[in-house]
TrEMBL record:
Keyword Transcription: yes
Protein name in the entry: LysR substrate-binding domain-containing protein
Record-linked PANTHER family: HTH-TYPE TRANSCRIPTIONAL REGULATOR (PTHR30126), HTH-TYPE TRANSCRIPTIONAL REGULATOR CYSL (PTHR30126:SF39)
Sequence similarity: Belongs to the LysR transcriptional regulatory family.
Entry keywords, A to Z: DNA-binding, Transcription, Transcription regulation
Lineage: Bacteria, Bacillati, Actinomycetota, Actinomycetes, Pseudonocardiales
Pfam families: HTH_1, LysR_substrate
Organism of provenance: Saccharothrix hoggarensis
């Protein structure tokens, strides 16, 4: 059997202090226990390591060689422990998050700000992309936690509701629908070319699920900001997150059109299935859930 680390520490201390009793005291063990441990070490190695005399304990020539090697082993172990501690500290001080655009632009900054009030040294990296890409980043382990708006099952991932949202049909003030009071029917909406997000975005997936027979889009764009700008310019109507257009509606740049369609949706946090969230990722999810409940 290889020698245990405590026996090696004892041997090194005997060499440094010249006394088995003082070495035992340094380790906080009784001298008889130290003597027994040292004898066991000598038996395992098949060498006499210490000459025990009336004036103290002195390393034998073999003991000097073994002690030097034992010191290197202990230094390596100390380096391993320190390295692991540093890695753990770095892990606890970093949080990698990916979020769909609606979440990233309108919710995640507030969640992260609240988390950093209690953990000011926490470094957070936020990747902003569409829901499909967020799911891929989480599955690949590239981020610790993701937030998506996509409906439907997510194989291989655990999820939890983080917030609620709804989609709103919006037009420019000069559009004929801007004065409409009767809700638009799903068939009317499906027959109208819209400005849409790209496939893979949560907003597009929700709309495709609600209107499976929708006609081809008038224009397809890669960000909510671009879609909103196209609607304001009068290109065509669009269905966007109410969070994303709330200021435009309040200031009159856009008008919401009533539609006889339930476009409410859940914004979810996602992480690999079978893994328990801990540390900053769990704390951020707790913040998001609490703030989501307060908005409900």
């Amino acid at each position: 059997m290889p020698p245990d680390l405590e026996s090696l520490r004892l041997l090194v201390l005997v060499g440094e202090l010249g006394s088995l009793g003082r070495a035992a005291g340094e380790l906080g063990i009784a001298q008889p226990s130290a003597s027994k441990r040292l004898s066991t070490l000598e038996r395992h190695l098949g060498l006499v390591l210490v000459d025990r005399g009336r004036r103290g304990s002195v390393l034998t020539p073999a003991g000097v060689v073994v002690t030097e090697r034992a010191r290197r082993v202990l230094d390596e172990v100390a380096g391993l422990v320190e390295g692991a501690r540093a890695l753990r500290s770095a892990r606890e001080a970093e949080l990698r998050v990916a979020a769909s655009m609606t979440v990233a632009e309108h919710l995640a900054p507030g969640w992260i700000a609240e988390l950093r009030r209690t953990r000011p040294d926490l470094r957070v990296g936020l990747r902003v992309t569409n829901s499909e890409t967020v799911v891929g980043l989480v599955r690949d382990g590239a981020v610790d936690l993701g937030f998506v708006e996509a409906p439907g099952p997510l194989p291989g991932l655990s999820s939890r509701k983080a917030a609620a949202d709804r989609l709103a049909l919006v037009v420019a003030p000069g559009h004929p629908w801007s004065r409409r009071r009767r809700p638009l029917t799903p068939a009317e909406l499906a027959a109208t070319p819209l400005v849409m997000r790209e496939r893979g975005s949560g907003t597009r997936d929700t709309l495709d699920q609600a209107l499976p027979d929708a006609c081809a889009p008038a224009l397809e764009l890669g960000s909510t900001t671009a879609v909103r700008g196209a609607v304001v310019a009068g290109v065509a109507p669009a269905v966007l997150s109410a969070l994303a257009v709330s200021v435009d509606l309040a200031e009159g740049r856009l008008v919401e059109v009533p539609v006889a369609l339930d476009l409410r949706r859940v914004l979810r946090a996602v992480w690999p299935a079978g893994r328990r969230l801990v540390g900053p990722a769990a704390e951020l999810l707790a913040v998001a859930t609490r703030r989501g409940q307060s908005r409900a």
